[in-house]
Amino acid sequence: MATVVVFGATGVQGGSVVNRLLKNPKYKVRAVTRNPDGEAGKKLASQGVEVVAGDANDKASVEAAFKGAEAAFFVAAYWPSVATLGLVGAGEEELVQYQNVAHAAAASPTLKHLVLSTLPPADKSSGGRLKVPHYDFKAYAVDWIQRTLPELWAKTTEVWPGFYDSNFAAFAMVKPLYLAAADAYLIPMPAKKSSILPVVGSVETNLGVAVEAILTTGAPAFSKLLVLVTDYVAAGDVPAYFSRATGKRAVFLEYSDADIITVFGIHGDEYAASMRWAAEFPVWEDPKVVADRTRLLTLEQVGLSKADLVGFDAGLALIKDKLVQ
Ligand SMILES: NC(=O)c1ccc[n+]([C@@H]2O[C@H](COP(=O)([O-])OP(=O)(O)OC[C@H]3O[C@@H](n4cnc5c(N)ncnc54)[C@H](OP(=O)(O)O)[C@@H]3O)[C@@H](O)[C@H]2O)c1
Protein backbone atom coordinates (compact mmCIF):
# COMPACT_ATOMS: atom_id res chain seq x y z
CA MET A 1 0.00 0.00 0.00
CA ALA A 2 1.32 3.44 -0.92
CA THR A 3 1.09 6.10 1.76
CA VAL A 4 -0.53 9.31 0.50
CA VAL A 5 -0.09 12.43 2.63
CA VAL A 6 -3.19 14.62 2.49
CA PHE A 7 -2.99 18.19 3.75
CA GLY A 8 -6.25 19.99 4.51
CA ALA A 9 -7.79 16.61 5.33
CA THR A 10 -10.17 18.19 7.85
CA GLY A 11 -11.38 20.63 5.18
CA VAL A 12 -13.41 20.51 1.97
CA GLN A 13 -10.74 19.62 -0.59
CA GLY A 14 -8.53 17.37 1.52
CA GLY A 15 -11.66 15.75 2.98
CA SER A 16 -12.86 14.86 -0.51
CA VAL A 17 -9.47 13.32 -1.32
CA VAL A 18 -9.37 11.33 1.93
CA ASN A 19 -12.88 9.95 1.46
CA ARG A 20 -12.09 8.74 -2.01
CA LEU A 21 -8.67 7.24 -1.26
CA LEU A 22 -10.02 5.43 1.80
CA LYS A 23 -12.11 3.30 -0.58
CA ASN A 24 -9.04 2.31 -2.63
CA PRO A 25 -7.05 -0.58 -1.10
CA LYS A 26 -3.93 0.56 -3.01
CA TYR A 27 -3.57 3.56 -0.71
CA LYS A 28 -2.96 4.24 2.95
CA VAL A 29 -4.02 7.76 3.90
CA ARG A 30 -2.01 9.99 6.21
CA ALA A 31 -3.97 13.12 7.15
CA VAL A 32 -2.16 16.24 8.28
CA THR A 33 -3.89 18.59 10.69
CA ARG A 34 -2.73 21.25 13.11
CA ASN A 35 -4.97 19.67 15.71
CA PRO A 36 -5.02 15.84 15.69
CA ASP A 37 -7.00 15.82 18.96
CA GLY A 38 -9.83 17.97 17.59
CA GLU A 39 -13.20 16.53 16.55
CA ALA A 40 -12.26 16.33 12.87
CA GLY A 41 -8.91 14.68 13.60
CA LYS A 42 -10.53 12.11 15.88
CA LYS A 43 -13.19 11.34 13.28
CA LEU A 44 -10.53 10.69 10.64
CA ALA A 45 -8.63 8.42 13.03
CA SER A 46 -11.83 6.46 13.72
CA GLN A 47 -12.12 5.86 9.94
CA GLY A 48 -8.70 4.22 9.84
CA VAL A 49 -6.74 7.26 8.70
CA GLU A 50 -3.27 7.86 10.15
CA VAL A 51 -3.58 11.37 11.61
CA VAL A 52 -0.40 13.37 12.15
CA ALA A 53 0.24 16.85 13.52
CA GLY A 54 1.54 19.31 10.94
CA ASP A 55 1.43 22.97 10.05
CA ALA A 56 2.32 24.08 6.54
CA ASN A 57 4.06 27.12 8.05
CA ASP A 58 6.38 24.84 10.03
CA LYS A 59 8.97 23.22 7.76
CA ALA A 60 10.04 20.54 10.25
CA SER A 61 6.48 19.28 10.72
CA VAL A 62 5.92 19.19 6.94
CA GLU A 63 9.13 17.19 6.45
CA ALA A 64 8.05 14.74 9.17
CA ALA A 65 4.66 14.32 7.50
CA PHE A 66 6.35 13.20 4.26
CA LYS A 67 8.34 10.40 5.93
CA GLY A 68 8.01 7.23 3.83
CA ALA A 69 5.18 8.66 1.72
CA GLU A 70 4.89 7.89 -1.99
CA ALA A 71 2.39 10.61 -2.88
CA ALA A 72 0.97 13.83 -1.45
CA PHE A 73 -1.89 16.27 -1.97
CA PHE A 74 -1.63 19.89 -0.87
CA VAL A 75 -3.87 22.96 -0.97
CA ALA A 76 -3.30 26.12 1.07
CA ALA A 77 -6.27 27.53 2.97
CA TYR A 78 -5.91 31.31 2.15
CA TRP A 79 -9.21 32.68 3.48
CA PRO A 80 -8.70 32.15 7.26
CA SER A 81 -5.60 34.39 7.14
CA VAL A 82 -7.21 37.30 5.28
CA ALA A 83 -8.56 39.00 8.40
CA THR A 84 -5.14 39.15 10.05
CA LEU A 85 -2.73 39.35 7.09
CA GLY A 86 -4.80 41.10 4.42
CA LEU A 87 -5.39 39.87 0.85
CA VAL A 88 -1.77 40.01 -0.31
CA GLY A 89 -0.37 38.93 3.08
CA ALA A 90 -2.58 35.82 3.03
CA GLY A 91 -1.28 35.12 -0.49
CA GLU A 92 2.33 35.54 0.63
CA GLU A 93 1.67 33.08 3.44
CA GLU A 94 0.23 30.63 0.88
CA LEU A 95 3.34 30.95 -1.25
CA VAL A 96 5.57 30.08 1.73
CA GLN A 97 3.34 27.08 2.51
CA TYR A 98 3.54 25.72 -1.06
CA GLN A 99 7.32 26.27 -0.89
CA ASN A 100 7.61 24.42 2.43
CA VAL A 101 5.65 21.51 1.00
CA ALA A 102 7.69 21.56 -2.21
CA HIS A 103 11.01 21.55 -0.32
CA ALA A 104 9.87 18.60 1.81
CA ALA A 105 8.59 16.74 -1.27
CA ALA A 106 11.82 17.38 -3.17
CA ALA A 107 13.90 16.14 -0.24
CA SER A 108 11.85 12.97 0.23
CA PRO A 109 13.63 9.83 -1.01
CA THR A 110 10.30 7.97 -1.33
CA LEU A 111 7.98 10.52 -2.97
CA LYS A 112 6.86 9.59 -6.47
CA HIS A 113 3.98 12.03 -7.12
CA LEU A 114 2.90 15.43 -5.76
CA VAL A 115 -0.58 16.75 -6.55
CA LEU A 116 -1.15 20.45 -5.95
CA SER A 117 -4.54 22.12 -5.94
CA THR A 118 -4.02 25.59 -7.36
CA LEU A 119 -5.93 28.18 -9.40
CA PRO A 120 -5.46 30.11 -12.68
CA PRO A 121 -2.87 32.90 -13.05
CA ALA A 122 -5.07 36.02 -13.08
CA ASP A 123 -2.14 38.44 -12.86
CA LYS A 124 -0.06 36.77 -15.59
CA SER A 125 -2.94 36.08 -18.00
CA SER A 126 -4.09 39.71 -17.84
CA GLY A 127 -0.61 41.15 -18.27
CA GLY A 128 -0.70 42.47 -14.70
CA ARG A 129 -4.01 44.37 -15.08
CA LEU A 130 -6.19 42.08 -12.94
CA LYS A 131 -4.91 40.66 -9.70
CA VAL A 132 -6.71 37.99 -7.66
CA PRO A 133 -4.38 37.12 -4.78
CA HIS A 134 -6.04 33.81 -3.87
CA TYR A 135 -5.48 32.70 -7.48
CA ASP A 136 -2.19 34.46 -8.15
CA PHE A 137 -0.09 33.30 -5.22
CA LYS A 138 -0.96 29.70 -6.07
CA ALA A 139 0.19 30.37 -9.64
CA TYR A 140 3.36 32.10 -8.38
CA ALA A 141 4.05 28.99 -6.28
CA VAL A 142 3.79 26.81 -9.39
CA ASP A 143 6.12 29.13 -11.33
CA TRP A 144 8.56 29.01 -8.42
CA ILE A 145 8.55 25.19 -8.34
CA GLN A 146 9.09 25.03 -12.11
CA ARG A 147 12.09 27.35 -11.86
CA THR A 148 13.61 26.22 -8.56
CA LEU A 149 12.84 22.52 -8.23
CA PRO A 150 12.63 21.13 -11.78
CA GLU A 151 13.09 17.53 -10.59
CA LEU A 152 10.07 17.91 -8.32
CA TRP A 153 8.10 19.62 -11.09
CA ALA A 154 8.81 16.54 -13.23
CA LYS A 155 6.62 14.52 -10.82
CA THR A 156 4.01 17.15 -9.95
CA THR A 157 0.43 17.49 -11.22
CA GLU A 158 -1.72 20.59 -10.81
CA VAL A 159 -5.50 20.53 -10.49
CA TRP A 160 -7.69 23.65 -10.70
CA PRO A 161 -11.06 23.01 -8.99
CA GLY A 162 -13.81 25.38 -10.06
CA PHE A 163 -16.22 27.22 -7.74
CA TYR A 164 -17.66 24.77 -5.19
CA ASP A 165 -21.37 23.87 -5.22
CA SER A 166 -21.09 23.91 -1.41
CA ASN A 167 -20.20 27.62 -1.40
CA PHE A 168 -23.94 28.18 -1.82
CA ALA A 169 -24.53 26.31 1.43
CA ALA A 170 -21.60 27.31 3.58
CA PHE A 171 -19.69 30.39 2.37
CA ALA A 172 -21.18 33.49 4.01
CA MET A 173 -20.57 35.76 0.98
CA VAL A 174 -22.18 33.30 -1.41
CA LYS A 175 -25.04 31.78 0.59
CA PRO A 176 -28.45 32.79 -0.81
CA LEU A 177 -30.45 35.21 1.33
CA TYR A 178 -33.84 34.04 2.55
CA LEU A 179 -36.82 36.36 2.13
CA ALA A 180 -39.13 34.87 4.75
CA ALA A 181 -42.18 36.91 3.75
CA ALA A 182 -41.99 35.55 0.21
CA ASP A 183 -40.47 32.13 1.03
CA ALA A 184 -37.98 32.86 -1.74
CA TYR A 185 -34.25 33.57 -2.09
CA LEU A 186 -31.94 36.31 -3.36
CA ILE A 187 -28.63 35.13 -4.80
CA PRO A 188 -26.25 38.09 -4.69
CA MET A 189 -22.99 38.03 -6.64
CA PRO A 190 -20.45 40.72 -7.60
CA ALA A 191 -21.04 39.91 -11.25
CA LYS A 192 -23.19 40.65 -14.28
CA LYS A 193 -25.88 38.11 -15.12
CA SER A 194 -23.83 37.15 -18.16
CA SER A 195 -20.61 36.58 -16.17
CA ILE A 196 -19.45 33.00 -16.26
CA LEU A 197 -18.84 30.96 -13.14
CA PRO A 198 -16.59 27.91 -13.66
CA VAL A 199 -18.13 25.35 -11.29
CA VAL A 200 -16.47 22.16 -9.98
CA GLY A 201 -19.83 20.46 -9.46
CA SER A 202 -19.90 18.43 -6.25
CA VAL A 203 -16.51 19.26 -4.73
CA GLU A 204 -17.14 16.64 -2.05
CA THR A 205 -17.10 13.91 -4.70
CA ASN A 206 -15.26 15.29 -7.71
CA LEU A 207 -11.98 16.44 -6.24
CA GLY A 208 -11.36 13.03 -4.66
CA VAL A 209 -12.29 11.27 -7.91
CA ALA A 210 -9.91 13.52 -9.86
CA VAL A 211 -6.97 13.22 -7.45
CA GLU A 212 -7.32 9.43 -7.30
CA ALA A 213 -7.38 9.35 -11.12
CA ILE A 214 -4.29 11.59 -11.31
CA LEU A 215 -2.41 9.32 -8.89
CA THR A 216 -3.44 6.23 -10.83
CA THR A 217 -2.33 7.84 -14.10
CA GLY A 218 1.13 8.58 -12.69
CA ALA A 219 3.86 9.61 -15.13
CA PRO A 220 1.60 10.73 -18.04
CA ALA A 221 0.14 13.32 -15.61
CA PHE A 222 3.51 14.69 -14.48
CA SER A 223 4.07 18.45 -15.10
CA LYS A 224 0.47 18.67 -16.33
CA LEU A 225 -2.72 20.43 -15.29
CA LEU A 226 -6.26 19.12 -14.91
CA VAL A 227 -8.95 21.81 -15.06
CA LEU A 228 -11.74 20.41 -12.89
CA VAL A 229 -14.83 22.27 -14.09
CA THR A 230 -18.04 20.36 -14.76
CA ASP A 231 -20.19 23.36 -15.77
CA TYR A 232 -19.58 26.89 -17.01
CA VAL A 233 -22.65 28.63 -15.60
CA ALA A 234 -23.85 32.18 -16.33
CA ALA A 235 -24.26 33.94 -12.97
CA GLY A 236 -27.81 34.88 -13.95
CA ASP A 237 -28.65 31.18 -14.38
CA VAL A 238 -27.57 30.22 -10.85
CA PRO A 239 -31.10 30.83 -9.45
CA ALA A 240 -32.54 28.32 -11.93
CA TYR A 241 -30.05 25.67 -10.71
CA PHE A 242 -30.90 26.58 -7.11
CA SER A 243 -34.62 26.31 -7.78
CA ARG A 244 -34.30 22.94 -9.51
CA ALA A 245 -32.43 21.60 -6.47
CA THR A 246 -34.58 23.11 -3.73
CA GLY A 247 -37.99 23.72 -5.27
CA LYS A 248 -37.75 27.33 -4.02
CA ARG A 249 -38.07 30.50 -6.08
CA ALA A 250 -34.85 32.50 -6.38
CA VAL A 251 -33.56 35.55 -8.22
CA PHE A 252 -30.10 36.89 -9.03
CA LEU A 253 -28.95 40.15 -7.48
CA GLU A 254 -25.94 42.05 -8.83
CA TYR A 255 -23.74 43.58 -6.17
CA SER A 256 -21.50 46.40 -7.35
CA ASP A 257 -17.91 46.00 -6.19
CA ALA A 258 -18.45 48.94 -3.81
CA ASP A 259 -21.56 47.27 -2.34
CA ILE A 260 -19.92 43.94 -1.61
CA ILE A 261 -16.93 45.72 -0.07
CA THR A 262 -19.32 47.71 2.15
CA VAL A 263 -20.88 44.47 3.35
CA PHE A 264 -17.94 42.04 3.48
CA GLY A 265 -14.87 44.32 3.47
CA ILE A 266 -11.70 42.98 1.87
CA HIS A 267 -13.18 39.48 1.64
CA GLY A 268 -15.81 40.98 -0.67
CA ASP A 269 -13.10 42.78 -2.63
CA GLU A 270 -11.36 39.45 -3.29
CA TYR A 271 -14.59 37.75 -4.45
CA ALA A 272 -15.27 40.73 -6.73
CA ALA A 273 -11.71 40.60 -8.09
CA SER A 274 -12.20 36.95 -9.08
CA MET A 275 -15.40 37.86 -10.93
CA ARG A 276 -13.73 40.85 -12.68
CA TRP A 277 -11.07 38.45 -13.98
CA ALA A 278 -13.74 35.89 -14.92
CA ALA A 279 -15.55 38.50 -17.00
CA GLU A 280 -12.53 38.64 -19.33
CA PHE A 281 -11.27 35.06 -18.88
CA PRO A 282 -14.41 32.95 -18.52
CA VAL A 283 -13.03 29.61 -19.70
CA TRP A 284 -10.09 28.19 -17.80
CA GLU A 285 -8.90 25.85 -20.58
CA ASP A 286 -8.68 28.81 -22.98
CA PRO A 287 -5.24 29.57 -24.53
CA LYS A 288 -5.46 33.05 -22.97
CA VAL A 289 -5.32 31.30 -19.55
CA VAL A 290 -3.22 28.21 -20.35
CA ALA A 291 -0.75 29.42 -22.94
CA ASP A 292 1.21 26.14 -22.96
CA ARG A 293 -1.35 23.77 -24.48
CA THR A 294 0.87 20.73 -23.87
CA ARG A 295 0.23 21.14 -20.14
CA LEU A 296 -3.51 20.48 -20.33
CA LEU A 297 -4.81 17.07 -19.28
CA THR A 298 -8.23 15.95 -20.44
CA LEU A 299 -10.50 13.89 -18.21
CA GLU A 300 -10.03 11.01 -20.63
CA GLN A 301 -6.24 11.19 -20.23
CA VAL A 302 -6.65 10.44 -16.52
CA GLY A 303 -9.10 7.63 -17.23
CA LEU A 304 -12.27 9.60 -16.43
CA SER A 305 -15.28 10.87 -18.32
CA LYS A 306 -17.91 13.45 -17.39
CA ALA A 307 -20.08 10.55 -16.21
CA ASP A 308 -17.62 9.93 -13.34
CA LEU A 309 -18.23 13.43 -11.96
CA VAL A 310 -21.23 14.92 -10.20
CA GLY A 311 -22.24 18.08 -12.09
CA PHE A 312 -23.66 21.30 -10.67
CA ASP A 313 -27.34 20.28 -10.87
CA ALA A 314 -26.76 16.90 -9.22
CA GLY A 315 -24.30 18.37 -6.71
CA LEU A 316 -26.79 21.00 -5.53
CA ALA A 317 -29.48 18.33 -5.28
CA LEU A 318 -27.23 16.33 -2.93
CA ILE A 319 -26.86 19.30 -0.56
CA LYS A 320 -30.33 20.79 -1.05
CA ASP A 321 -31.20 20.70 2.67
CA LYS A 322 -28.15 22.84 3.44
CA LEU A 323 -29.07 25.41 0.80
CA VAL A 324 -32.36 26.47 2.36
CA GLN A 325 -33.48 27.81 5.75
N1 LIG B 1 -14.39 27.91 -2.35
C1 LIG B 1 -14.16 27.64 -3.62
O1 LIG B 1 -15.07 27.65 -4.46
C2 LIG B 1 -12.75 27.28 -4.06
C3 LIG B 1 -12.55 26.84 -5.38
C4 LIG B 1 -11.26 26.50 -5.78
C5 LIG B 1 -10.20 26.63 -4.88
N2 LIG B 1 -10.44 27.08 -3.61
C6 LIG B 1 -9.29 27.20 -2.70
O2 LIG B 1 -9.46 26.22 -1.70
C7 LIG B 1 -8.63 26.57 -0.61
C8 LIG B 1 -9.32 26.17 0.68
O3 LIG B 1 -9.51 24.79 0.68
P1 LIG B 1 -10.75 24.16 1.44
O4 LIG B 1 -12.01 24.76 0.89
O5 LIG B 1 -10.58 22.70 1.42
O6 LIG B 1 -10.52 24.76 2.90
P2 LIG B 1 -11.33 24.55 4.25
O7 LIG B 1 -12.47 23.61 4.07
O8 LIG B 1 -11.58 25.90 4.82
O9 LIG B 1 -10.25 23.81 5.16
C9 LIG B 1 -8.99 24.38 5.36
C10 LIG B 1 -8.03 23.23 5.61
O10 LIG B 1 -6.70 23.74 5.63
C11 LIG B 1 -6.04 23.25 6.77
N3 LIG B 1 -5.07 24.26 7.17
C12 LIG B 1 -5.31 25.57 7.40
N4 LIG B 1 -4.16 26.19 7.75
C13 LIG B 1 -3.20 25.23 7.74
C14 LIG B 1 -1.81 25.23 8.01
N5 LIG B 1 -1.16 26.35 8.39
N6 LIG B 1 -1.13 24.07 7.90
C15 LIG B 1 -1.76 22.92 7.55
N7 LIG B 1 -3.07 22.85 7.27
C16 LIG B 1 -3.77 24.01 7.37
C17 LIG B 1 -7.11 23.01 7.80
O11 LIG B 1 -6.66 21.97 8.64
P3 LIG B 1 -6.61 22.03 10.25
O12 LIG B 1 -7.45 23.19 10.69
O13 LIG B 1 -7.20 20.69 10.65
O14 LIG B 1 -5.17 22.16 10.56
C18 LIG B 1 -8.28 22.54 6.94
O15 LIG B 1 -8.22 21.15 6.73
C19 LIG B 1 -8.35 28.06 -0.71
O16 LIG B 1 -6.99 28.26 -0.99
C20 LIG B 1 -9.19 28.50 -1.91
O17 LIG B 1 -8.56 29.50 -2.66
C21 LIG B 1 -11.68 27.37 -3.18
From TrEMBL:
The keyword Zinc-finger does not apply. Keywords: NADP, Oxidoreductase. Coiled coil: none annotated. The keyword Oxidoreductase applies. GO terms for molecular function: oxidoreductase activity. One of its GO terms (cellular component) is nucleus. InterPro entries: NAD(P)-bd_dom_sf (IPR036291), NmrA-like (IPR008030), NmrA-like_oxidored (IPR051164). Residues 3-260 form the NmrA-like domain. It comes from the Eukaryota. SUPFAM superfamilies: NAD(P)-binding Rossmann-fold domains. Belongs to the NmrA-type oxidoreductase family. This is NmrA-like domain-containing protein. It comes from Lasiosphaeria miniovina.
